[in-house]
Amino acid sequence: MADPKLTAPRGTRDLLPEDAPWWERAETVARELAHRYGFSRVEIPLFERVELFARGLGESSDAVEKEMFRVSGARGSDEERAEWALRPEPTAGIVRAFIEHGMHVRPGPLRLTTIGPMFRYDRPQAGRYRQFTQWDVEVIGDPGPAVDAELIELGHRFYRDLGIAGVEARVNSIGDATCRPAYREALVTYFAAHTERLTDDSRRRLHLNPLRVLDDRHLDPELAAGAPRSVDHLCDACRAHFETVLRLLDALGCAHVVDHRLVRGLDYYTRTSFEFYVAGREGQQDALGGGGRYDGLVELLGGPPTPGIGFGIGLDRTILAMQAQAVPLPAPPPLVAVVGATDDGVARLRVAGALRDVGIAVRPDGSARKLGKQIESAVKAGARWAVIVGEGELERVALKDLASGEQRDDLDIPAVVAAVRLT
Ligand code: AMP
């Protein structure tokens, strides 16, 4: 047993070799799709100023108010601790980088993508971790509405390509600076009449940010059902935008439902908001991903007024969904073991090198163990073939099919390559 003081921190997970094929599949599909949709990769720091998140996400958001992971150096002062935090989400950092590097002068709209860990000091449970990984895409400088539908379609394509069935987008529009104030007022009036049914958090936030009350995990469902709906308060421009998004989703055949409670926890969102779920699994820990438009964020963080939209897909939950549905993974390329018991290992390494030169995955056994033992290890390691290097010429080897046990002697390397490639 590991020393309990030296185990992984609560809410974090180690990625073990048996999990790797799932992660590689999800990341490969994400990267490949991002490429196919014209996104360029960016990387931003894992930590930023607390101020950036406080401004970008809103002081009253859970991410800032309760879940911030503060960081400082070993000799950090309290002020320093107050200054830095691990990123709870990537949009604020990407927009900070967009402004800092003057990216608004580049020919836009910019399409940026990143995959990496996010940190929220939340109470861990199934599907909710303190460190989790998001695939994030952001389109900065495109007012939509076509791009809104395109991103939702991209999310759908991602889940479909991974083989996850039944994914549905829940969509809503939360208006903009023109129409949101009236909607906020309507929410305040409604909830103020029912404060006794609100949680402490919601009561406190009611006047600060009433949209967050709708977002409260513990909101009384009956109260939620009767609440004013943002779609009934949209200004003409926001309504036209939302109707076009819905029409495009229909035209693209993207499964979606309008969810009036979907307001997102973050202050900078405007207009289109969306989340992805496996239909029928719409609990708090079940959102596979979510995103939305943030037309006010660039300006809020000190840049020129610039519209933006993006999504963050949680890869941890995506992989849980892949495993729950037992989606098949593509077969890995066949592994070849190179074994031999007659030399110090040089010949085996050279044969391994020759096979790797042409792209074959090789696991040489450099030990001095008996050939039988080496082959046994190769089978346990999942090798499909064993190349047996003998005493004679380097270029002449035997090839053993570890599935059938059949062995062919005296082959040259091209013959080995041809046989392996046929599997
Ligand atoms: P959010 O920014 O909260 O909408 O998060 C976007 C996506 O990231 C969610 O839909 C989840 O898939 C994932 N996610 C958010 N928080 C966590 C967490 N604590 N643990 C695991 N995944 C998370």
Give the fraction of residues assigned to helices.
25-40%
Provide the β-strand percentage band. Answer: 15-25%
Q: How many helical stretches?
A: 16
Please give the order of strands in the largest beta sheet. Answer: 1-5-6-11-10-9-7-8
Kindly report the average pLDDT value.
91
Please give the largest β-sheet: 8 strands, mixed
How many beta-strand elements? 16
CATH architecture descriptor of the largest domain: 2-Layer Sandwich
The CATH superfamily of the largest domain turns out to be Bira Bifunctional Protein, Domain 2
Q: Which fold name fills CATH's third level, the topology of the largest domain? A: BirA Bifunctional Protein, domain 2
| CA distance, first residue to last residue | 41 Å
Write the layout of secondary structure elements.
Layout: H1 20-36, E1 40-41, E2 47-49, H2 50-57, H3 62-65, E3 69-71, H4 78-83, E4 84-86, H5 91-100, E5 110-119, E6 131-140, H6 146-162, E7 167-173, H7 180-192, H8 200-205, H9 211-214, H10 221-225, H11 236-252, E8 256-258, E9 270-278, E10 289-293, H12 297-300, E11 308-314, H13 315-324, E12 335-339, H14 346-357, E13 361-364, H15 371-380, E14 385-389, E15 397-401, E16 407-411, H16 413-421
Parallel strand pairs: 1-5, 7-8, 12-13, 12-14
Antiparallel strand pairs: 2-4, 3-4, 5-6, 6-11, 7-9, 9-10, 10-11, 14-15, 15-16
Helix pairs in contact: 1-6, 1-13, 6-11
Bound molecules: adenosine monophosphate (AMP).
